[in-house]
Specification:
By secondary structure, this protein is α/β, with parallel strands linked by helices. The chain is 36% helix and 15% strand. Helix 2 packs across helix 3 (41-52) and helix 3 packs across helix 4 (70-85). The longest helix is centred in the first third of the chain and has 16 residues, at 70-85. It is elongated and about 65 Å long. It starts with a helix and ends in a 5-residue tail after the last strand. The model has no long low-confidence stretch (mean pLDDT 96).
Length: 301
């Protein structure tokens, strides 16, 4: 019987360098889609292999010529095989995702964390928040895995954080992450359709990475994205359905000097056409200044 490529790899490849080359070749051959933490075959292979070997995910070079045991080769190659065969994001295979130095548990109940707002929170929303210790209440709308709520609690040490999501499954995942960071006393998880379950609550900061994929883009999503919860991605014909809810209701839930921070994907032009009277402030991120906007309470009317 002819051996398949993975049988041959288990028998003939010996070092991490060998497996890296094999994984990159297979990813390129299979045209897998990247975008859940990496954007190329090399970085994806490095992450999966280092995770499989229980090595630090940022330290590939020292181990490149290390020989693997038969069991290590088998486990690493199985991850590579599944990444291709099942077209799952790497995070679903490893049950973890990273935002900077912060690790979060994830599975198919939540989208893979990748919000540009995370890097803004690492800077404590400077210069839009003058005194991070004066922030008393924060809302993370559409919290998913709870990652932004946790980063907000880290950024604003005196703040109580409400983390809202419509999905009870997502909140179960968020609960695991909140517990992992020891923030049960500061982060409150709330099942709610937008603001429905928090009437009268007001916040100094509202952040949201809501659904924002339009109908045309949803129909064309690669398989890796279709494995994520559609509820967390799709937002109507133009991708602005949830943004409209936020812009209609946020003012009632902000303190007088409060701010709203929202990620909007590739919908900047559509948003500005839909709301020509709002003076959106577009915030700089590593991806540019087209993806996250800020509005103050006074700007919302």
């Amino acid at each position: 019987m002819t051996k398949d490529l993975y049988d041959q790899a288990r028998e003939e490849l010996s070092t991490l360098r060998d497996l890296m080359r094999f994984a990159v070749s297979r990813f390129n051959e299979a045209c897998v889609f990247f975008g859940h933490g990496t954007d190329n075959a090399w970085d994806e292979a490095a992450y999966l292999l280092l995770h499989s070997l229980h090595l630090p995910v940022d330290s590939l070079d020292p181990y490149m010529d290390a020989r693997l045991t038969a069991a290590e080769r088998a486990a690493a190659l199985e991850l590579i095989r599944r990444r291709i065969a099942e077209r799952l994001p790497a995070a679903y295979l490893t049950r973890e995702a990273w935002l900077g130095d912060y690790r979060f548990y994830v599975d198919e109940r939540v989208i893979v964390p990748r919000s540009h707002i995370a890097e803004l929170l690492r800077e404590q929303l400077s210069p839009w928040v003058n005194d991070p210790w004066a922030v008393g209440r924060v809302l993370d709308m559409c919290t998913g895995s709870g990652c932004l709520a946790i980063l907000a609690a880290e950024a604003f040490p005196e703040a109580a954080v409400d983390a809202v999501d419509l999905s009870p499954d997502a909140l179960d995942v968020a609960r695991l992450n909140v517990k992992e960071y020891g923030l049960e006393e500061r982060v409150r998880l709330i099942e709610s359709d937008a603001f429905a379950a928090i009437p009268g609550e007001r916040y100094d900061v509202i952040v949201s990475n809501p659904p924002y994929v339009n109908a045309e883009s949803m129909a064309a999503l690669p398989a890796e994205y279709r494995s994520e919860p559609q509820l967390a991605l799709a937002s109507g014909e133009d991708g602005l359905d949830f943004a409209r809810v936020l812009l209609a209701e946020a003012a009632r839930h902000l303190t007088p000097d409060g701010i709203l921070i929202v990620e909007i994907g590739n919908n900047k032009d559509e948003l500005e056409r839909a709301f020509p009277r709002l003076s959106f402030v577009w915030l700089d991120t590593s991806a540019g200044d087209r993806f996250v906007f800020m509005l103050r309470r006074k700007d919302l009317g």
